[in-house]
Amino acid sequence: MTVADDVISVRHLTMAFGDRVIIAGLDFAIRRGEVFVVMGGSGSGKSTLLRHLVGLQEPAAGRVYYGSENFTEASAADRERILRRVGVLYQGAALWTAMTLAENVALPLQQFTELSRERIREVVEFKLALVGLHGFEEYYPWELSGGMQKRAGLARAVALDPEILLIDEPSASLDPPTGRHLDRLISQLQKALGTTVVVVTHDVASILGIGTRALFLDGEAKRAVAEGPPSELRDRGPPQVQAFFRGAEALP
């Protein structure tokens, strides 16, 4: 791998809320085509990092790069252009409850493309079929289970065929079988679309099941303490990382 393969690079990043530092001196790169997992305990800064990657929160220090472009110091117009390459699945799916699934998935296509109404309808049906929701186009989010809502959110996140897909806690609020089904779906979409996937999670089954590489954030140390293939970190990582895997696996 070379620097040219890095789709996102984080350099000397410090995340803070006022004077309270969450994580300091963060350095890592995400490579094209991998499933990169950001893991750690509650309050370690996982979701905060995701917010930094999309510009919802500004760093106290350091920079985020997309390819060779400095996203942190980019203008609003350039940030919007860069983020056209990025799809996001938020923890709660973030679907518009007053809109059908078809209308939710169509929204980014209407906003950011010049496709005809008929072509948008075809794309929407295809994307919903990809996540196993063919026939649910006219359902509203509140009529669906939590797992189906997550899948609908995933369909919307890939509506524009993003190069990069950011996912926040995909298995949150889901029972284990539904969580594993969503993991398999994410893996299948990554392979089918060639998308680079960044997953923020504390779910060990997801980490080991779909992760190519993982970064462990230590909230107490306020830094990243390990990076590498998840199974290697589980077996030979620093003590706090091994304890994370053992503790999470012991939970019901």
Brief overview, please?
With 252 residues, this protein is an alpha/beta fold. It contains 9 helices and 10 strands. It has a single domain (3-250), classed as Rossmann fold (3-Layer(aba) Sandwich).
What do these coordinates show?
With 252 residues, the chain is an alpha/beta fold. The protein has one domain (3-250): P-loop containing nucleotide triphosphate hydrolases (Rossmann fold, 3-Layer(aba) Sandwich), CATH 3.40.50. The chain is built from nine helices and ten strands. Helix 3 (101-112) packs parallel to helix 5 (146-157) and helix 4 crosses helix 5 (146-157).
For the structure shown, list the relevant keywords.
single chain; 252 residues; Rossmann fold; 9 helices; 25% strand
Please give the largest β-sheet: 6 strands, mixed
Number of domains: 1
Question: Number of helical runs?
Answer: 9
Category from helices, strands and their pairing: alpha/beta
Under CATH, the homologous superfamily reads P-loop containing nucleotide triphosphate hydrolases
Strand percentage: 25-35%
Question: Judging from the principal axes of the Cα atoms, what is the shape?
Answer: globular
CATH architecture annotation: 3-Layer(aba) Sandwich
Question: Which topology does CATH recognise?
Answer: Rossmann fold
Number of strands: 10
| N to C succession of SSEs | EEEHEEHEHHHEHEHEEHH
